[in-house]
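From the methods appendix. Each design record in this collection lists the tokenized structure first, followed by the designed amino acid sequence. Records were kept in a plain field format so they could be parsed without special tools. The example shown here is representative of the layout used throughout.

RECORD:
FOLD TOKENS (93 positions):
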């Protein structure tokens, strides 16, 4: 059911109108008898249940994925030796 209110009445009964909208009613707010706004309940999206294992068998992680990068690859990330986060020679020992 749609109910119409002028702006003054809507301002004075705002809390009541919000509750009516939350209960499922649609409220039209008018200015000088012409509709200018609609107050209605938010449509709730049904939440999908997430299931694990969706990517099982399609994704793999290499055994050495977290191994240190080779020095030649590491050099391509930095413009000068002072940019290194650590000393490569020190890590070779």
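DESIGN:
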């Amino acid at each position: 059911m749609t109910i119409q209110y002028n702006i003054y009445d809507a301002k004075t009964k705002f809390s009541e109108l919000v509750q009516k909208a939350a209960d499922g009613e649609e409220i039209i707010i008018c200015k000088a008898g012409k509709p200018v706004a609609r107050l209605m309940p938010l449509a709730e999206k049904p939440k999908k249940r997430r299931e694990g294992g969706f990517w099982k068998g399609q994704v793999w992680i290499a055994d050495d994925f977290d191994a240190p990068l080779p020095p030649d690859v590491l050099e391509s990330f930095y413009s000068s030796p002072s940019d290194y986060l650590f000393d490569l020679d020190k890590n070779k020992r």
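APPENDIX NOTE: The mean pLDDT is 83.
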